[in-house]
Amino acid sequence: MLLTITTTHQPATDLGFLLHKNPDRHQSAVLSFGTAHVFYPEAMVDRCTAAVLVEVDPVDLVRNHRGPSGGAASLGQYVNDRPYAASSHLSAAINKLFGTALSGRCKERPELVEVRMPFEVRLPALPVRGDADLLQRIFEPIGYHVEATPIALDVEFPNWGMSRYFDVRLTTTTRLRDLLEQLLVLVPVLDDAKHYWVGSEEIDRLLRRGGEWLSTHPERELIANRYLRHDRVLTNQALERLLDVEDIAEIEGAHDNAEEAVERPISLNEQRIAAVVNEVKACGARRVLDLGCGSAKVIRALLSDTNAEKVVGVDVSYRSLEAGARRLHLDTMTPRQRERVDLWHGSLTYRDRRLEGFDAAVVVEVIEHLDPSRLSSFERVIFAHASPRVVVVTTPNVEYNVRFEGLATGALRHPDHRFEWTRTDFAQWAEAVASRHGYHVTFAGIGPDDPEVGAPTQMAVFRR
Ligand code: SAH
Question: Is 239 inside a domain boundary?
Fold first, then answer.
């Protein structure tokens, strides 16, 4: 199978520096399924083309059970399209050959990494499973111009019609690393097949490669679903995390461009954070706990928008806390700011004396991750022992789920949610908790208030 990447950026031979592959030499890499070669059919100042040729051994694929369909050996397995068609084998080859370029490094000419260059990509045999316009729907939203010629099943028998293979020419102006990342993700998506087993680590890979452009891509569901081999649980997790990426980008973007932010309807996540922060401000809390703080989105808002002297985040997930430390830039904070914040590893279902002596606690989108049988422990730890004056709890309002397009009937919003409550469920729980521990509780909705099903998020504020 073949892929060529051409640029007319000047000097075009910069492509060699960016790809970390010298245009004067032919280079090869051995992969588990065959050999990948890079060479330059042309390397002039005004035009330079790098070609990737991947030789796949179809017989070896079958013998080593790496074939496209598994099961008993049949002629179909030996005679398959994998040597010719651009597929996940090509992605693996790109990954292996251009690891340095993909990671955004360029030793000799670091400044080139960020340069947007004109590129032309040719994929002479790209298999496309799906509607005729799929190529356009996938590539155009991320800035490609697509020219695709369907390949006849057999040139000698035109009445056999067209195959699912296209001779594709893509043109765009972008950074090379973005181009490579997009090909890496999208070629197997179009083919709708992968030569390797897909596990949860593949979500990380998808988000690493696709984080920025995929979160706003109109076909992100199809892309995630196919990339993760139609595994529903993995796909849901990936989409949820992509929403996260989008939220972060939105919040950060809002700071950059305040005017645009005013005009754009704010995301549910921003509204939730704003509502919670408002409650903390309103009660004038000095010492604040963020319980189940995750990657510290709420903490960041508490630090910038309230006068709290101390904000402490607690989470069971060490990885989330690490992400939180990065989001808050803990290591480069001024000593005064650093004094204001702490992140603690801990569980909300075991008594922890460190949680005592705070004015307020916020528990944002956490209780639905607790097993129902652990709710009474959570209640004791927070309301009986830690016992801050104010506790703010938010959780999804399950009634609103019917308004989310793309959420199957009866499905919960996140695979890790143990339950999602109606407004009545939440009120019953919260009122019982309040009365057992001497609190008074009020309720509010967050997000668009639907006359029938209420708002997407519900919030309870407990005060004593
Ligand atoms: N409050 C954050 C994160 C919500 S996700 C936000 O709104 O952005 C739910 C978080 O609760 C996860 O980070 C999860 O690790 C944490 N969590 C779940 N069970 C927990 C427990 N028993 N103790 C502490 N944290 C818990």
Answer: no
Q: Specify whether 6 is located in the same domain as 128.
A: yes
The finding on whether 297 has its CB within 6 A of some atom of ligand 1 is yes
Q: Are residues 365 and 432 in the same domain?
A: yes
Q: Which atom of ligand 1 is nearest to the CA of 365?
A: 4
The CATH number of the domain where 303 resides is what?
A: 3.40.50.150
Return the higher-pLDDT residue of 152 and 300.
300
Residue 28's CB: how many other CB atoms inside 10 A?
A: 13
Q: How many A from CA of 294 to the centre of ligand 1?
A: 5
Q: Dump pLDDT digits (tens) for 146-192.
A: 999 998 887 777 778 788 899 999 999 999 999 999 999 999 999 88
pLDDT digits (tens, 9 = 90+) for 443-455: 999 998 999 999 9
179 Cα–ligand 1 center, Å: 36
Q: Ligand 1 in contact with 91 (CB < 6 A)?
A: no
How many helices (H) and strands (E) the chain has is answered by: 17, 14
| Beta carbon of 321 within 6 Å of any ligand 1 atom | no
Region 115-128: mean pLDDT is 94
The closest alpha carbon to 291, from 335, 338, 339, 346, belongs to: 346
> 229 — alpha (psi -120 to 50), left (phi > 0) or beta?
left
Highest mean pLDDT among 121-130, 191-200, 277-286 belongs to 277-286
Whole-structure pTM over 0.85, yes or no?
no
* 274, two tokens: 């704003």
* CA 374 to ligand 1: nearest atom: 22
The answer on 44 and 189 residing in a single domain is yes
Q: Which domain holds residue 270?
A: 249-463
365 torsion bin: left (phi>0), alpha (psi -120 to 50), beta (else):
left
Distance 80 CA to ligand 1 centre (A): 47
Question: Does one domain contain both 281 and 151?
Answer: no
